[in-house]
Fold:
Amino acid sequence: MLFVGLGNPGEPYKNTRHNIGREIAEAARKEYKLPDFRFEKKWKALVSEGKIGESRHEVGTPTSLSKSKKVASGEKIALVLPETFMNKSGNAVGPITRFFKTKPKNIFIIHDDADLPLGRAKLSFGKNSAGHKGVESVMRALKTKEFWRLRVGIGGKRNIPAEKIVLRKLSADEQKEAKKITRQTLETIEIIAKEGPECAMNSYNT
Structure:
């Protein structure tokens, strides 16, 4: 499974709404104790490969999760941070998908969504881009829209056009909301890896 955090590389874009997908993928690497990201020039991306499960639920631990042989052995994933700018995300996703021979149904794009309020998120499959340039670039690279998306809300209370809010920094209060949805997204990634995306939809979309 590939989990791709969309955003813009570089210090000026950190903590902006547009980068919330990238920063969630960075948090996932730390949460699941995966190797440091390495830059792969041929893919134009930072990549970390590892397993979810084996480091968090060791064999023999008396929990319901660790009793499962599937969980104990870990579920292999790759976290991907395109080092292209947002509107060229497909230039990274296309090559890495071909290398791993990953089917679109096993690709999960984590990205900001201005149509959802901050603190809300949705897991969806095969939907149109709704004008998101990064998602459009991925669709062109994969020649399909039949992949999964973890859409993380960045919208405010007021009806402000997306192009005017995506590069805004999060305020202190907004960062608290972002941390909550980041935690929920990390839990959802784990459910996806272990049980499949269909099992994660109800809790994530509520």
Q: What stands out?
A: The first strand starts at residue 2 and ends at 5. The chain has a mean pLDDT of 87. Residues 3 and 108 are 5 Å apart (CA to CA).
